[in-house]
Amino acid sequence: MSNPNQGPGPNPPQVSNQRHVLCALVQNVPGVLAHISGMLASRGFNIDSLAVGETEDPNLSRMTFVVVGDVHVLDQVGKQLEKIVTVVRVLDVSSRDFVERDLLLLKVKAPAGTVRSEIRELVDIFRGKIVDVGPDEVMIEISGRENKVQAFIERMRPYGITELCRTGRIAMVRSENRMPSINDLAAGLASA
């Protein structure tokens, strides 16, 4: 029995609710998504997000998973995916320097006047755009990191969300020999 007053030993326990981003390149053939999602469900893996789309190669699709669990769960998901014939490669994106995005379409009650102006101002602050306008509601598009999208949803709730749709996360590993972006430079200046 360990002493609760002692710090973690040489192998600290793994956090069980960590979120890991995995990308799988798969052959672009019918039934791949059903096969993979069925395998993950049958083994009880908790998939928080799943996004699928085409790649630069028309023969391949890219599946991005957000898996919730410890390192053991991450390892098991990777091993199970690699056993599937149509899976070409699996990459643990979250273990590298990466960029992630989530896309949101949201309809919110927005009668003409002050309320609509408030909503338009929030959309601008979150760098979104209004993509459709009806007599009493607007449709908004927001993309960004998951926490930004979630924060925007929470700001819209008091106005009355009538419909919401999200893509799930997509992610890509940064180039190793990339030039620093404006955001990187700003972050460097802020920490100096």
Kindly summarize this structure in a few lines.
Keywords: Amino-acid biosynthesis, Branched-chain amino acid biosynthesis, Transferase. Helix content is 30%, strand content 35%.
Layout of secondary structure:
Blueprint: E1 19-27, H1 32-42, E2 47-54, E3 60-68, H2 71-83, E4 87-92, E5 98-109, H3 114-125, E6 129-133, E7 137-144, H4 146-156, E8 161-166, E9 170-173, H5 182-191
Antiparallel strand pairs: 1-3, 1-4, 2-3, 5-7, 5-8, 5-9, 6-7
Tell me about this structure.
The protein is of the alpha+beta class. It folds into two domains: 78 residues, Alpha-Beta Plaits (2-Layer Sandwich), CATH 3.30.70; 73 residues, ACT-like. Chain A, domain 2 (Alpha-Beta Plaits, 2-Layer Sandwich), CATH 3.30.70. The chain is 30% helix and 35% strand. It contains five helices and nine strands, in the order E-H-E-E-H-E-E-H-E-E-H-E-E-H. The strands form two sheets. Strands 5, 6, 7, 8 and 9 form a five-stranded antiparallel beta sheet that branches. Strands 2-3-1-4 form a four-stranded antiparallel beta sheet, with helices on one face. A hairpin with a 3-residue loop joins strand 6 and strand 7. The longest helix is centred in the middle third of the chain and has 13 residues. It is elongated and about 55 Å long. The relative contact order is 0.16. The N terminus is likely disordered. InterPro entries: Acetalactate_synth_ssu (IPR004789), Acetolactate_synth/TF_NikR_C (IPR027271), Acetolactate_synth_ssu_C (IPR019455), ACT-like_dom_sf (IPR045865), ACT_dom (IPR002912), AHAS_ACT (IPR039557), AHAS_small-like_ACT (IPR054480). One of its GO terms (biological process) is isoleucine biosynthetic process. Keywords: Amino-acid biosynthesis, Branched-chain amino acid biosynthesis, Transferase. Catalyzes the conversion of 2 pyruvate molecules into acetolactate in the first common step of the biosynthetic pathway of the branched-amino acids such as leucine, isoleucine, and valine. GO terms for molecular function: acetolactate synthase activity; acetolactate synthase regulator activity.
